Amino acid sequence: MASEARPENYHKHDVIVVGAGGAGLMAAVQLAGHADVAVISKLYPSRSHTGAAQGGICAALGNLEEDHWEWHMFDTVKGGDYLTDQDAAEVLAREAVDAIIELEHMGLPFSRTPDGKIAQRRFGGHTRNYGEGPVMRSCYAADRTGHMILQTLYQQGIKHSVNFFDEFQVLDILFNEGVCCGVVAYAIRTGEIHTFHGKAVIFATGGFGRVYSVTSNAMALTGDGVAIPWRRGIPLEDMEMFQFHPTGIYKLGILLSEAARGEGGIVRNSEEEAFAKRYAPTLADLAPRDMMSRFIYQEIKEGRGAGPNKDYVYLDLRHIPYDVQEAKLPDITEFIRVYLGVDPTKELSPIQPTAHYAMGGLPTDVDGRVLVDDRTALPGFYAAGECACVSVHGANRLGTNSLVDLVVFGRRAGKHALDFVRHADLVPLPANPEGFARDQVERLLSRGAGVSEKAGEIRQTLQVEMFDKASVVRNEQGLKEMHGILLDLQHRYQRVAIDDHTRTYNTDLLEAIELGYMLDCAECIVAGALARQESRGAHYREDYPERDDVNWLKHTLVWKTSGGLRHGSRPVSITRFQPKERKY
Ligand SMILES: Cc1cc2nc3c(=O)[nH]c(=O)nc-3n(C[C@H](O)[C@H](O)[C@H](O)COP(=O)(O)OP(=O)(O)OC[C@H]3O[C@@H](n4cnc5c(N)ncnc54)[C@H](O)[C@@H]3O)c2cc1C
Fold first, then answer.
1. Ligand 1 pocket, residues with Cβ under 6 angstroms
2. Whole-angstrom Cα distance, residue 470 to residue 182?
3. What fold does the segment set 10-241+359-423 form as a domain?
4. pLDDT digits (tens, 9 = 90+) for 533-543
């Protein structure tokens, strides 16, 4: 059936990419020139969160010291606490090298060694010779690596005439005859509904750190691209695996990249003790993030936190010379000066763990095809980047492994989709394609203020309670309480009304819609965290403090059904490395 949209609001392209961050742009660049590709983004592309990535992008180039992709693969598997799918980790580590060279050839201005090679530095959990000590594997452009990747890829998109639909917010995904055939979007500038009809759709919508009150994530990271397909029956994988980064600015959550520790920064408690080496003798401050965050939690719990409430610790950069700070960490030191009013060459910076990265998301295979159960791909539907779960990061992502995930798996999704659309027919749109999206918008615009709930109040409760009950350390009681709070918030959400009833740049409306996605993501995080009765990677249950490979060496899947949540699982791919105890 044809779209009921006005003809100018109906768009047909071979491939529709949703999201203009690193993953979406990398996929689009593969397609450009070979297929008709559209990129839809609720943000102007260069505002995507990829641009905020500071520290680096890793690949075993071996430019400064010996390195091998097998070592990188091993670190990725071990860092993920053996929940990492090893077939995906092998693809990541092998193809990372080539992907970096591709970015270099596109013109990405990497920092250089004196002899002109791409410079590399240390990062948490990246080691030489299977864990012997830290290795320099992270390529970087000062501490603006993501910014440079985003700009480079966006330029390539423009150069290759990708059709960009900026400031279009996708509200629904369309399936017909068992195939994905398009999306429905809201034009933020005009308030009109548009239908995008295609042979394949690639979701690259990023993460959902905004479900927590203290987060490094930008305002737009509300889990839209995770929740929208979930509402349509697609499962989500490993949602309980949410990473907290150890060094967020106290209370604000703004990230002080791990590059700071890669360049020698040290985390200290109130007694100025460099405590990480007490817990991780080999890697100390360069232990993986899940562990560093727990070390900090432990120090605070045992009374060695700083400040009047003893609820933070310090990042110490004082011993790093001013010129090194300026050359290698200019943005980070600027954040410290601006947001903390601290001079990092002379003073300690108050920090606390901050919600940072979703390891879970839409289940995919190594070609980015979205799975509807433990093995079946849904034709025409792809996902890449943070909204996807390949699962290459397992239970805990290593620093610099996300940017490389975007380019490696964004590229693979783009290439596979290209092959797919060459052979596939265009499936007709389902009946009344815009109906669901239009109803959602109109309901919010027309609801009277009399019986109203405010989206902002629900959001704040959600964020504060999630940070309290489903963050670095979890237990059954807290998670059950959170489950109850979410039921209440979901109920209140049904009565949300907005103040702005206009059609142009109605952020009130869009934030209310996004709150619905955040509630869905939180529901899945909590359900997964309650179900997984063990501690692994970022998921630490104080009532089940040990990893349990007998019962839990598996991925969790969760579906939304009319009768409530349905849980399932997926086996972990284990090819080269048998699970071992994680020591650093
Ligand atoms: C502060 C910070 C620093 C980081 N530093 C590093 C680092 O040094 N190294 C590293 O490897 N990783 C780092 N990460 C992680 C990494 O940057 C992210 O995981 C990654 O950039 C996500 O990229 P993406 O392409 O999946 O999504 P994003 O870059 O988040 O882009 C999402 C896109 O989806 C669009 N979108 C979302 N919803 C909709 C919708 N409903 N309709 C239309 N469009 C939509 C947005 O407009 C946007 O274009 C960092 C993350 C943060 C927050």
1. 18-24, 40-43, 45, 48-50, 52-57, 145-146, 169-170, 204-207, 216-217, 220, 224-225, 255, 257, 357, 385-386, 400-403, 406
2. 34
3. FAD/NAD(P)-binding domain (3.50.50)
4. 999 999 999 99
Catalytic, 411? Answer no
**What pLDDT is attached to residue 466?**
98
Mean pLDDT of 215-224: 98
Q: Which atom of ligand 1 is nearest to the CA of 387?
A: 26
- Residue 218 C-alpha to ligand 1 middle, in angstroms? 9
CA distances from 326 to 46, 57, 133, 554 (A): 24, 20, 27, 44
Q: Measure the CA–CA gap between 240 and 534, rounded to whole angstroms.
A: 12
Mean pLDDT of 484-507: 95
The catalytic position among 137, 289, 459, 570 is 289
Residue 69 has φ and ψ, to the nearest 5°, of -60, -30
Calpha distance 468→472 (Å, rounded): 9
Domain 435-543 grouped into CATH 1.20.58.100: yes
CATH architecture of 246-355: Alpha-Beta Complex (3.90)
Domain boundaries, the chain: 10-241+359-423, 246-355, 435-543
Residue with the smallest CA separation from ligand 1 atom 18 is 50
Residue 449 pLDDT class (50, 70, 90 cuts): low
Q: Tokens 């918008």 sit at which residue?
A: 441
Residue range 272-286: mean pLDDT, rounded: 95
Task: Please report which confidence band the pLDDT of residue 505 belongs to, taking 50, 70 and 90 as the band edges.
Answer: very high
Measured in Å, residue 518 CA sits from the centre of ligand 1 at: 16
